[in-house]
Design brief:
The chain is of the alpha/beta class. Helix content is about 35%, strand content about 15%. The longest helix has 17 residues. The N and C termini lie far apart (about 45 Å). The structure holds 3-isopropylmalic acid and iron/sulfur cluster (SF4).
Length: about 475
């Protein structure tokens, strides 16, 4: 652990402190929060309706339409016929919400990636894809997984609906300055161990409130070795550790990802931007409020067994015993699991591959590699939902859709889908679902649904065997064991 830093000093600074400082319109005082300038405001259909109503009721205009980007994701159907309008959208509340977003965006001049757009997708997938997400920006959205964008060295966090209204009207936000935490990940992830396993292991270690009040900076050799998509998986789940945001210093991997994207700077502007972005890195000697060390080499594929993401173990471990812990017992009762029970070999009924955590091309590739030329187990339903239209197109261009369909999985239209089931894609009561998403709360994937969070590789191997299986067994070349 390190000592509290003095916020008035100028050097050396952390990545977070640099971005914060550059966006302080009015600094925080003992009695008042800071006023922060917001560079990018992302909007979706669930948390924006009341905010637009607020503007309307106060007769206000939207302050910066050019810094506001909207998409439809949470309530969108994944059935191509509903998307195209050949059949009506089945979930009425979803259809209403989508319509309302369209009306609001038209009235206030917001750039909307609507149902028919080939750039539509989950808000945290399309921001980076379009190059709207950039290092050093402040990015907000009425959505807790906005931390995803921190993978680029942006300060990105979720806000409430009232705050969405404030940002629409003023492009600013009242905010108290959070504390800082460094998570230093040394070593390298082993074969079959993914970024998802890393973040699950981190949450297992620090707990679901371990990051409360902090912005986490993930750093160290294991983080630097990650691709942008892997970094997004890690930052995405910062909120599940209670943190306000997660950040990773921008580097050549970041710049290579962004170059040439629609909203990325070009020509001399690009060169100037890269120079600016390079300077965002935490200065040597900068202090964090807290430092946690993790050894990547020691991490195994992880799986959750309970009803929050901190209830997680290495896949080969048994359900932990916590005598006298009523919350633990309640959680296990919901999950239909016993203390001391092995998780490996547990039968599952559903596999969901998708979400803003693991619905990108590399995630689909990871799963397709497992499923290629094979069939999923009889009785297992596997839903593959790309994170965006672009991910879908790219996956189809390299034949991943065929691999999934031939294996017996369903290949769907992009959106949040079964991550939270707002569009009607649900897990039945009592069924076990291995899900590549980020939340396993009671009822998250449907009333009574039991969610086990894991990586795309673990999810795909479970689909093949119909049981929880160690993906390393499969990668080692062994035919996945029929338990
Ligand atoms: C609907 C939205 C407000 C919510 C969030 O904030 O995270 C959702 O995206 C989720 O993942 O639970
Ligand atoms: S995919 Fe899931 S976690 Fe991500 S924004 Fe959608 S509902 Fe939230």
């Amino acid at each position: 652990m390190n000592t509290r830093t003095d916020p008035r000093r100028s050097e050396p600074l952390t990545l977070f402190e640099k971005v914060w400082k550059q966006h302080e319109v009015v600094p925080q005082t003992a009695d008042t929060p800071a006023i922060l300038y917001i560079d990018l405001h992302l909007i979706h259909e669930v948390t924006s309706p009341q905010a637009f109503s607020l503007l309307r009721s106060l007769d206000l205009k939207l302050r910066r339409t050019d810094r506001t980007l909207a998409t439809m994701d949470h309530s969108t159907p994944t059935d191509p016929d509903e998307i195209s309008g050949r059949v009506p959208i089945k979930v009425e509340s979803a259809a209403r919400q989508l319509k309302q977003l369209e009306v609001n965006c038209r009235e206030f001049g917001v750039n909307l990636r609507g149902l028919g757009s080939d750039q539509r997708g989950i808000v945290h997938v399309i921001g980076p894809e379009l190059g709207a997400t950039q290092p050093g920006k402040t990015i907000v959205c009425g959505d807790s997984h906005t931390a995803t964008h921190g993978a680029f060295g942006a300060l990105a966090f979720g806000i409430g609906t009232t705050e969405v209204g404030h940002v629409l009207a003023t492009q600013c936000l009242l905010q108290r300055r959070p504390k800082t935490m460094a998570i230093e990940v040394s070593g390298r992830l082993g074969p079959g161990v993914t970024a998802k396993d890393l973040i699950l292991a981190i949450i297992g270690r620090i707990g679901v409130s371990g990051g409360t009040g902090h912005v986490i900076e993930y750093r160290g050799t294991a983080i630097e070795a990650l691709s942008m998509e892997e970094r997004m998986t890690v930052c995405n789940m910062s909120i599940e550790a209670g943190a306000r945001a997660g950040m990773i210093a921008p580097d050549d991997t970041t710049f290579a990802y962004l170059k040439g994207r629609q909203y990325a700077p070009t020509g001399a502007h690009w060169d100037a931007a890269v120079e600016r972005w390079r300077a965002l890195r935490t200065d040597p000697g900068a202090l964090f409020d807290e430092i946690v060390h993790i050894d990547a080499d020691s991490i195994a594929p992880m799986i959750t067994y309970g009803t929050h993401p901190g209830m997680v173990v290495p896949i080969g471990a048994a359900v932990p015993q916590r005598p006298g812990d009523a919350a633990h017992a309640k959680s296990l009762a919901y999950m239909g699991l016993q203390e001391g029970e092995e998780i490996i070999g547990k039968a599952i009924q559903v596999v969901f591959l998708g979400s803003c955590t693991n619905g990108r091309l590399s995630d689909l590739k990871q799963a397709a590699q497992v499923l290629k030329g094979r069939k999923i187990a009889p009785g297992v339903r596997m839903l593959v939902v790309p994170g965006s239209q672009q991910v879908k197109r790219e996956a189809e261009a390299i034949g991943l859709d065929r691999i999934f369909i031939e294996a017996g999985a369903e290949w769907r239209e992009p959106g949040c889908s079964m991550c939270l089931g707002m569009n009607g894609d649900l897990v039945a009561k009592g069924d076990y679902a291995v899900s590549t998403s980020n939340r396993n709360f009671e009822g998250r994937q449907g009333p009574g649904a039991r969610t086990l969070l894991a990586s795309p590789a673990t999810a795909a191997v479970a689909a093949l065997t119909g049981r929880i299986t160690d993906p390393r067994e499969f990668l080692a070349g062994a035919a996945p064991a029929a338990h």
